[in-house]
Amino acid sequence: MSSTNLPIAKAITAGLRDAMRADERVMMMGEDIGILGGVFRVTDGLHAEFGSQRVVDTPLAEAGIVGTAVGLAVRGYRPVLEIQFDGFVYPAFNQITTQVAKMHNRTLGQVKMPIVIRIPHGGGIGAVEHHSESPEALFAPTAGLRILAPANAQDAYWMTRQAIECEDPVIMLEPKRRYWVKGDVDPDHRPELTPWQAAVVRPGTDATLLAWGPSMPLALESAQAAAEDGIELEVIDARSLSPIDVPTIAASVKRTGRLLIVHEAPVLGGLGGEIAARISEECFYHLEAPVLRVGGYHLPYPPARMEHAFLPDLDRVLDGVDRLLEH
């Protein structure tokens, strides 16, 4: 199969389909994922191909979905779960952090949890309450969980495949407002980078700009706007949020001397704070300015007509760049 141009949503669909064809132990569970194909149609067509025993419509009970997956994993299956919206994952938080993440360690390695939990991630779709969360910082501190955040179609396809192949539980944060952004996907050539590595997507010399998932287009837009003023930003896509590829980020910061982190989650307690601390420790003598962050505010996610004022935008990112360069 040659490279093809697909929206991120359909790249994930292709990854799911190819994984299910390759391994009959792979099955899917979630609300409305079967005949309907999911609210974002990511699982469209899979029920027709694989049937109701492998693409299972569940009740609206996230804790039950994840708890059932634990039992299936113990029996040798590789469940892929869809949490319909990011704000719906909280009822399953206990199952994810106390069962899914801990079972391998609790059984001294005898029981593995090859579970993938797909979560549409971030804001920008004009949705109501509980439909636009960014919960990565709640899960990242939990040992035993891996977290991936694809930002383009190629990563969406391959991270889906690689997450399903992984023996550890993986949370996939899918950028829902970017679902229909197209990109080239080559399903025949596995990327050189592992899914746990960050990628330098634009080289630069004046400062490093780090983002992930739904914030990546903004990061690239900001770098282009800064270049028009003669400022060359190096843009890094974190890709993996647990583990975090600190060496790649640190190598960039040692070259540029400055780091700005952009994410949709609130800055207070956000994952950017952990990254800032690690870079401050490892790059202290290379930094020309404090590590800065641009993110959401410490507020409940606002109504749809106000979300533009909550989410980071070009002006806020460029203001952060200006503050970096003032030092």
What separation lies between the terminal Cα atoms? 51 Å
| Beta fraction | 15-25%
The main sheet comes to: 7 strands, mixed
Radius of gyration over C-alpha positions, nearest whole angstrom: 20 Å
Helix content: 25-40%
What average pLDDT do the residues reach? 96
Spans where pLDDT lies below 50 across 5 or more residues: none
Output the helix-strand order. Answer: EHEHEHEHHEHEHEEEEHEEHEHEHH
- Total helical segments: 12
Please count the beta strands (DSSP E, at least 2 residues each): 14
Spatial strand order of the main sheet: 3-2-4-5-7-6-12
Outline type: globular
SS class:
alpha/beta
Question: What is the fold's blueprint, element by element?
Answer:
Blueprint: E1 4-7, H1 8-22, E2 26-30, H2 46-50, E3 55-57, H3 62-74, E4 78-82, H4 93-100, H5 103-106, E5 116-121, H6 136-139, E6 146-148, H7 153-165, E7 170-175, E8 182-185, E9 199-202, E10 207-211, H8 216-227, E11 233-237, E12 240-242, H9 246-256, E13 259-266, H10 271-282, E14 292-296, H11 307-310, H12 314-326
Parallel strand pairs: 2-3, 2-4, 4-5, 5-7, 6-7, 10-11, 10-13, 13-14
Antiparallel strand pairs: 1-8, 6-12, 9-11
Record keyword descriptors for this entry.
35% helix, 327 residues, globular, alpha/beta, five-stranded mixed beta sheet
How would you describe this protein?
The structure is a single chain. The protein is α/β, with parallel strands linked by helices. Helices cover 35% and strands 20% of the residues. It has helices spanning 8-22, 46-50, 62-74, 93-100, 103-106, 136-139, 153-165, 216-227, 246-256, 271-282, 307-310, 314-326, and strands at 4-7, 26-30, 55-57, 78-82, 116-121, 146-148, 170-175, 182-185, 199-202, 207-211, 233-237, 240-242, 259-266, 292-296. The chain has a seven-stranded mixed beta sheet with strand order 3-2-4-5-7-6-12, sandwiched between helices. Strands 9-11-10-13-14 form a five-stranded mixed beta sheet, with helices on both faces. It has a two-stranded antiparallel sheet with strand order 1-8. β6 (146-148), α7 (153-165) and β7 (170-175) form a beta-alpha-beta unit. It starts with a strand and ends with a helix. The model has no long low-confidence stretch (mean pLDDT 96).
